[in-house]
Amino acid sequence: CDSAEGFSVYAVSASFPRGDEQWTGQQRDGSSVSVQWSPSGQEVSLISEDYFPMYFVAPEKFLGNQMLSYGQNLSLSFRVDRRDTRLSAEDLVLEGAGLRVAVPLIAQGNAYPNENMQTYVFRLHDTADYPWRPTISQPDFQKLLHNLTAIKIRGTYSERSAGYLDDVSLVTARRAPGVPARWVERCTCPQGYQGQHCEQCTLGYRRARQELGAFSPCEPCNCNGHSEACDPDTGACDCRDNTAGLSCERCRDGFYGDATSGSSGDCEPCPCPAGATCAVVPKTREVVCTNCPAGTTGKRCELCDDGFFGDPLGGAGPVRACRACKCSDNIDPNAVGNCDRETGECLKCIYSTAGFFCDRCKDGYYSNALAANAADKCKPCSCSPSGTVGGQTSCSQVTGQCECLPNVAQRDCSVCQPGFFNLQSAAGCERCNCDPIGSTSGQCDITSGQCECQPGVSGRLCQRCEVNFFGFSSSGCKPCDCDPEGSRSGQCEEDGRCGCRPGFVGARCDMCEENYFYNRSAPGCQQCPSCYGLVRDKVNQQRQKLQDLQTLIDSLGSGEGSVPDEAFEDRLKEAERSIMELLEEAEASRGPHTHTHTHTADLGINNTLTTQWNRLQNIRGTVDDTGTQADRARHRVREAEDLIDRARQELDKAKDALGKVDIKPPSGTGDPNNMTLLAEEARTLADKHKMDADQIEKIARDANDTSTKAHNLLLRTLEGESRTSQEVDELNKKYNEAKELAKNLEKQANKVQAEAEDAGDKALKIFANLTSVPSFDTKALEDEAGKIKKEASDLDKLIDKTEKEYNDLRDDLRGKELEVRKLLEKGRSEQQTADQLLARADAAKALAEEAAKKGQSTFREAESILEDLRDFDKRVNDNKTAAEEALKKIPAINATIAAANQKTRQAEAALGNAAADARDAKSKAEEAEKIAAAVQKGSARTKEDAEK
C-alpha cells in the first residue's frame, strides 16, 4: 500500500462553550446519571455520592466508522476535586464490533490527576507501548474503530468526589483540502477485493462470514449456474430459470425439479390448481401438491379439506368450490370429520347442540345455541320427574319451561305453588286447606302438608286448640293453666274456666271457697269448723252495709233533671260520712280477743272501705278535669260563634254591594276586559269566603274533638270505676250539650259555606252576563269590590290569629316534651362519652407502660452498640495506619515499573534481533505491573475499609 491522496487532518472535538454537547453520564452497571455543565468554566462534571465510579460517555459524533483514527491520538483535559484518587485499569474505555479495550488514566506517560486541569493524550494503536487491555491484534483494533460504539472516560474515583472534563479531541481524516493526512493508506487489493482498504468484495464475490462485515474474507458466488452475480454483502444470487434461494439451490413456488443441476430446464411448473406448490416423492418420483388452495387437499388438490364441503373437480356433478362448513361455532376445531365433505351437514355438534348447522339445542336442553359465550349456550332442562306431565325430561328449547302438573310451579316444575303440597305424589300438588283462623298463613310444609299454626293451635290444618288450651281465635289459643290440685283435669272450658274439685273455686281452681280452708297436712280445701258461722254472720252484716253504701254512691248524680254542682257536692260529702261511719264501726267491732278469722274478715272490710274512699277521691279529680275540658270547649264554641257572626256580616255586606251594582248600557268607550277582571276578582272573593267557612268548620271540629277527648277521659275513668258510673251523669249531660253545640256550629258553618257557594254562583252568572256586554262604567263597582276585599282580608287575618293561638297552645306541650327527651338523650350521650374517655385512659396507661419497657430495652441496646463502636474505632485506626504505610510504597513501585520499561527499551535497542530476550523483559515488566496493580488495589480496599 501507499499513502492516499486527497485526505486532510480533521479533529472531532468538544470544548463545551454553550452546553454539554450531548455528553451523558453512566455508572458501571449501565444506569444513567446526570452531567453538570458549568457556564463559567465551560466544562462538564460528574459528582458521586458513593464509591462506585461514574463515566463520561461521548456523543454520536465521536462514534461510528473511525478507522482513519487508527494510530492517532485521543486527547482530553481532566481534573478532580481531591488528591486521594485511586486509579483503575479501566479509566478510558473503547467499545465496538463486539470488542472492548481500556487503559489507566496514567498510561502512555500521563500524569496523576489533581485539582488542576491537565491534558491527557492516548495513542489508538495495538502495539505494546500503548498498553490497551486486553491486548488485541491490528485487524481487531481496526475492526473496533471501524464500528466504534462507545467512548467512556472515568469521572469519579472516590466517595463524594467530582471529576471535570474539557477539550476532548479525536484526530481523524476526511476528504477535503487542508493539511495532508499522510497516515491514510491506499491498498493494492488481491482478486475478489476492492476499495481503498480492500474492504469490499468485487462483482462475482461475496462475504464468507457476514458477521465480520468489512473484515470478512471474500469468496466466489455460488449460484448453481442460474446467475453470474450475487450481492457482495449478503451473498444472495439474482436467480433466474424459475429458481430461488440464497444460491439458487431450489425451484421457486409453483415449480418442481432439481435446481442444482445447472441447466435452464431444471424447474418445471407444478400440476396443481391456482399455482399451488408441489414436491417430488424421493422413492416414487411422484409429484404431490403441497400447498393447495384453502379448503382443498389431496395429491392434486382434488378433495375438500376437513371442515370444508363441495366438489372441486365435479366428480359427482357440477363443479362446486370447497366452502367452509357452517356449524355455528358449535364444533371442536381440533376434531376431524366435523362435517360431511359433500353436503356440509355438521356431524359432531358440541355444547349440547343439534341440527344440520348445530343451530339448535338438542332434546332435553334449552337456551340460545347461537350465543357467543359457551356458558350461555344450551343448558339441561333438568325437569323434575315428580312435577312434570308423564315424567318428561324435555322442555321448551327457547324458555326452558317444563310441562308442569296441576298446581306445580317453577321452570323445572320442582316446587308446588304457594298454598299447595305433596309434589312427590307425581299427580300434581294438593291444596293445603289451612284453617284461616288457626294458621298464620295459607302456606304448609311441602312434604307433609302441615300448616303453620298460631300459638297453642294444633292439627294438620290448624283447626283446633292443643290439649289444655282454649279460646280458638286468629291470635291462637291460650293455655288453661288449671291448678293441678284444685282442678279435675288440665283441660278447661271454652271460656277458660277450669272444672274444680269440691271446696275449690276460681277460674283456675286455685282458691278455697268461702267457709273452706287449705290444710297443708291433708292437701285440699276442707270446710271450716262450725264456730266460723259467727264470723260469717258478722261479715254478712258488714257486706249489707257496704251494699247500702254502694246504693248511696250509685244515687249520686242520678235523677231525672240536671243536678246542680252544689247538690252534687253535698251527695259526695254524704257518701264520705257514710264511709267514715262504717270504718269506725268496723274498728269498734274488733276486740282485743277477736279470733284470727274474724280479724281477717275485718281487714277485708277495712280494705274495701279504703278502696271506696279512694274511688270517691278519683271521681272528684275526674270531675274537676272534665269541668276544665268543658270550659275549654265552651271557649272554643264562643270563638267559633264570633267568627260565624263576623263572616255572616261580611256576607251581608257583599250581598248589599252586589245589589247596588248598576249595569249601564254600553257607551262604546269602555274596555270589555275590565269586566272580565272584575268578575275574576268577585270569583276570588267568593272562594276566599268559602275558605273562611272551611276554617270555621275546622274550628268547630276542633271543639268537637276537645269535647270528645273529655268524654273519652271520663269513659276511661268510669271503666276503672264501674260501680260509681252514676256520679258522672251531670258531666255526660254537659258533654251532650257541648256536642249539640258543636253540631249546631257545624250546621252554621255549612250554612256559611252554602252562602259562599251561592255568592260564587251569582258571581259566575254576573260574569256570564257581562261577557256579552261590550263596555260600561265600572268605577263604582271597583271601589265597592275593593272595600269588600279589604274587609275580607281583615277577617282572614283575624282567623289566622285565632288559629295561631291554638297552634301555640298545642306546640307548647310538644316543645316541653322534646326538651325533656333531649335532656335525657344528652345525659345518655355524656355517659357514653365518659365511658369512652375512661377506656382511652386505660389504653393510654397500658401504652405508656409498654413504651417505658421498650425504652429501657432500647437504652440497654444503645449501651451495647456504643461499646462495640468504641472497639470498632480502635480497629479503624489500626487499619488506617497500615493503609498509609501501603500508600507510601506506591511511588517506589511506580519507579520500579518505569525502570523496568526503560530497561526493556534499552535491551531491544542493544540486542537488535534478540526477540527472545525482549519478550522475556517484557514479560517481567508486565508481571511487575500486575504486582503494582494488585498492591494498589489492596491499598485502596484497605483504605476504604478504614474510612468505613
Automatic annotation (TrEMBL):
Stretches for region Disordered: 904-948
Start-end of Low complexity biased regions: 904-916
Gene Ontology CC: one annotated term: basement membrane
Coiled-coil residue spans: 630-664, 721-854
Localization annotation: Secreted, Extracellular space, Extracellular matrix, Basement membrane
Keyword Ligase: no
Domain Laminin EGF-like residues, every copy: 221-269, 381-431, 432-479, 480-527
Cysteines joined through disulfide linkages: C239-C248, C404-C413, C432-C444, C434-C451, C453-C462, C480-C492, C500-C509
Composition bias type Basic and acidic residues, residue spans: 917-930
This protein's UniProt keywords: Basement membrane, Cell adhesion, Coiled coil, Disulfide bond, Extracellular matrix, Glycoprotein, Laminin EGF-like domain, Repeat, Secreted, Signal
Domain Laminin IV type A: 18-186
Record keyword Repeat present: yes
GO terms (BP aspect): animal organ morphogenesis; axon guidance; cell adhesion; tissue development
CDD domains found in the cross-reference section: EGF_Lam (cd00055)
Gene3D superfamilies xrefs: Laminin (2.10.25.10)
Protein's name according to its UniProt entry: Laminin, gamma 1
